[in-house]
Structures are given as C-alpha cells and as structure tokens.
Design brief:
This protein is of the alpha+beta class and about 200 residues long. It has helices spanning about 25-35, 35-45, 60-65, 90-95, 115-130, 160-170; strands at about 15-25, 50-55, 70-75, 75-80, 100, 135-140, 150-155, 175-180, 185, 200-205.
Length: about 200
C-alpha cells in the first residue's frame, strides 16, 4: 500500500498523486500463494504491469485500502483478513498479543521489476529479523482482484517500528491490531479533515 511520494512531503491539504498498479497476472499469483508465500515471492511468472494515475484525496485512498483483501499463510493454510473484522481464525492458529502487516513491493507506487521487488522484500525481511519478531507470508490485493502484492505478517512489532518501516519502504498504509480487536488500517499520511465512515482506520500524522 503506497503513495507516489515516499516521504509524503508533497501532499498538500490531503491531496496527492496516487499510482495504482494493475497486475496482468494477478490471478496466477493468487493461485500460487495457495502453495505458500515463497512460491509467490520467487516462482511466480513475469507479468505485464500498467499504471493508472489519478488525483485523489487521502480519504479516498484510505477507503480503497480499507476495502482491499488481505491474508496470511499459517501452517500452509491461507487465512483471510479484513479491515474492521476480528481475525479470529488467524489468532487461533497463530496466537500473539499484537499483529502487523507490511509489504515492500513497488515502493512509492512506482512499478518495479521482479528483481527489484525481491530485493526490497529481502531488505524488509532482514529488518523484521533484526527486530526479533516472528513472521509469516501474507498478501494484499484489490477488492476487484486487479492488483496483488505479497508481504509479511509479524508478531509483536511495535507501532514505532512499524511506522518507521512503512516510511523506509515507501508505504502509505499498513495493518496493525491487538489480539481480540478488529483489524485496523494504519495510514502513514496526513489525516484528512473528514474521516467519515472509516472507524477502523488509524492516522499516524
């Protein structure tokens, strides 16, 4: 989840230029994730990527992310996650006090080569390992299936570390929640004047 300016410094009055990647092979990537996240990260076929640019405000961006589909693979089984809904199945299968999701793909919404995305993902894995947190493969995808990006779901990652990683890897949004609570979307962009209809969205700035 990202915005075209990694530092978000060009956002003026909550408005920015958003690039949404449209993965031509999204369906094949989704099929491959069933056999585990590493298959997606290293064995997925090359795909054509088109980028649509639009001027949208951060409220629309948050709504898009809140409506997206998320999931994680625990003990070989994919488990769906939804913003605003408790992750009962995942928490039962992989207990923790706090959870966080983050991807490193296509930083700043600039489509990258597979090699570049793999390097970014490797760097994120190293950061998570340095933080000493457990992790499992995870993903985010558009509600209409138009784009798909793998990432990581981590145990016990502090909000400070999560926000720092989001900025380091050019991501505008992450997921974070405490055990037993609904999944929260965490936006690392300026909070808009109105956040109507976004009960489960937290704003860092």
């Amino acid at each position: 989840m990202k915005i075209v300016v990694p530092t978000f410094g060009s956002l003026v009055s909550g408005v920015g230029v958003i690039a949404r990647p449209v993965m031509g092979r999204a369906s094949s990537l989704r099929r491959e994730r069933e056999s585990g996240r590493e298959a997606v990260a290293h064995n997925a076929a090359a795909r054509d990527t088109a980028v649509m640019h639009a001027i949208v405000d951060t409220l629309e961006l948050a709504r898009t992310y809140a409506a997206a589909r998320y999931g994680a693979t625990v003990q070989g089984q994919p488990i769906a996650l939804h913003v605003g809904v408790p992750a009962v199945e995942l928490e039962r299968a992989w207990p923790s006090e706090r959870y966080a999701f983050l991807t490193a793909w296509n930083p700043a919404s600039q489509p990258q080569s597979r090699k570049a995305n793999d390097r970014a993902d490797e760097a994120l894995r190293a950061r998570l390992d340095e933080a000493g947190v457990a992790r499992v493969g995870a993903w985010a995808e558009a509600s209409d299936g138009g784009w798909y990006e793998p990432g990581w779901l981590a145990h016990g990652l502090s909000l400070e570390t999560l926000d720092a990683l989001a900025r380091e890897f050019g991501q505008a949004g992450t997921l974070s929640w405490m055990h037993g609570e609904p999944v929260h979307l965490r936006m690392v962009v300026p909070r808009p004047a109105s956040t109507a209809g976004l009960r489960w969205v937290d704003w860092v700035e």
